[in-house]
Amino acid sequence: MTLFDSPAFEGHEGVHAFADEASRLKCVIAVHSTARGPAAGGCRMWPYASAEEALTDALRLSRAMSYKNAMADLELGGGKSVIIGDSRTQKTPALFEAFGQAVEALGGKYWTAEDVGVSPADLAHARRRTRYVAGLDDHPAASGDPSPVTAEGVFRGVRLCVRRALGRDLDGVRVAIQGVGHVGEHLAKKLRAAGAKLVLTDVNGEALRRVAAETDAETAAPSAIFDVDCDVFAPCAMGGAVSLDTIPHLRARVVAGAANNQLAGPEAGQELFRRGILYAPDYVINGGGIINVAGEIRALERGEAFDPAWVDARLERLMSTLDEVLDQAQRERRPTHDVANAIARARIAGAAAERAAA
Ligand code: NAD
User: Fold this and answer.
1) What is the pLDDT of residues 141-163, one digit of tens each?
2) CB-CB neighbours of 151 under 10 Å
3) Strands 174-178 and 25-33, how do they pair?
């Protein structure tokens, strides 16, 4: 496979590979689009089996960030970086300084932040070499942990979907949550406070028992979560939970959760549509986290303090966008993921055309 033949390649503006022998850094920074603004997206550290695997992930994730940022109506494009390595054993300050140097080399085309395997402490090392870092926790512009904001967006999105699909409020609605990690736990608490009845699962038995006790929830085995009697299925663990294998088991009328890449493929979105299950496109409903990060980038660029009110206003706008996606899908009798993709592409193409004309 060459770069340009990869199914994950979609007109990316730039794909940059960096290696630093002294610190053993090997990373790829993919910039999908800067049409709407500097590309923003986190840095993932993962023990990829090959450079090709890392490249594919960077391409796929950076494109997803363009779509997510466009749907959140942020003045940001999409990018993502991946560091090849084991985050449990191979992290060093020098590695992240070298990574910061790589980000700096792009001259502000790309802003980095946390993702799987990368913490605020790691980013603090990167920040010694570049200012294009968000997701730190030690300055007035810092936005802190994005998970509660992601959970708030997902909570509002679930409420919206329940109103649309079931014509009722959350009180008494049964929600099955797969994964009670950073986002899933906050989501469970918000839903419980709104009167929802919860069924939770997690592969981490200790976290599951704790969150279930705190939210008065039933629990299910990880493999049994697809079969539980519920109105809403909320995937909040890993990607690919919604597939042609799992959909026939679902009893929910709504699928709405925080996980990235919930659909195992576009055919899963088609199948949800065919069965009349309302699906909230993942990168729309889970945009709260990147809105929070965008709040930090905005504050850093203006030399101001972080403004939670700005974030909340953007979150409300995100919910209007979700409502518009669902309206259009209903009107045109199309799957919701299809409509969201089309809107995201149009927003990016519109910004690119404006930039070209300027
Ligand atoms: P996390 O790692 O804190 O939580 C994930 C939880 O899922 C863990 O408790 C894990 O034990 C559990 N899990 C893993 N596999 C499972 C399985 N097969 N069955 C049941 N449980 C399983 O991650 P998070 O930050 O809460 O993110 C959750 C999802 O939301 C991820 O897909 C992430 O990419 C996405 N997301 C997160 C944010 C954010 O702000 N944290 C923003 C946007 C999207």
Assistant:
1) 999 889 999 999 999 999 999 99
2) 25
3) unpaired
236 lines ligand 1 (CB under 6 A): yes
Residue with the smallest CA separation from ligand 1 atom 34 is 260
Does residue 258 have its Cβ closer than 6 Å to ligand 1? yes
Q: What is the pLDDT of residue 1?
A: 65
Q: DSSP for 267-304? A: HHHHHHHHTT-EE--HHHHTTHHHHHHHHHHHHHHHT-
Number of C-beta neighbours around residue 309 at 10 A: 8
CA distance 107 to 240: 35
Predicted TM-score of the model (pTM): 0.94
Contact 17, 28 (CB under 8 A): yes
Protein residue closest via CA to atom 21 of ligand 1: 202
Angle at 279 between CA 274 and CA 283, to 5 degrees: 135
CATH topology of domain 3-60+80-133: Rossmann fold (3.40.50)
Please give the distance of CA 178 from its chain centroid, rounded to a whole number: 16
Nearest CA to ligand 1 atom 33: 259
- Read out DSSP for 52-92? HHHHHHHHHHHHHHHHHHHHTT-S-EEEEEEEES-TTTS--
Between CA 44 and CA 268 the distance in angstroms is 26
The listed CATH number (3.40.50.300, 1.10.10.10, 3.80.30.20, 3.40.50.720) that belongs to domain 148-285+322-344 = 3.40.50.720
Task: Give the tokens for residue 40.
Answer: 């923003």
**271 pocket-lining for ligand 1 (C-beta < 6 Å):** no
pLDDT at 4: 86
Given this chain, do its domains 3-60+80-133 and 148-285+322-344 carry the same CATH topology? yes
> Domains of the chain: which residue ranges?
3-60+80-133, 148-285+322-344
pLDDT attached to residue 220: 98
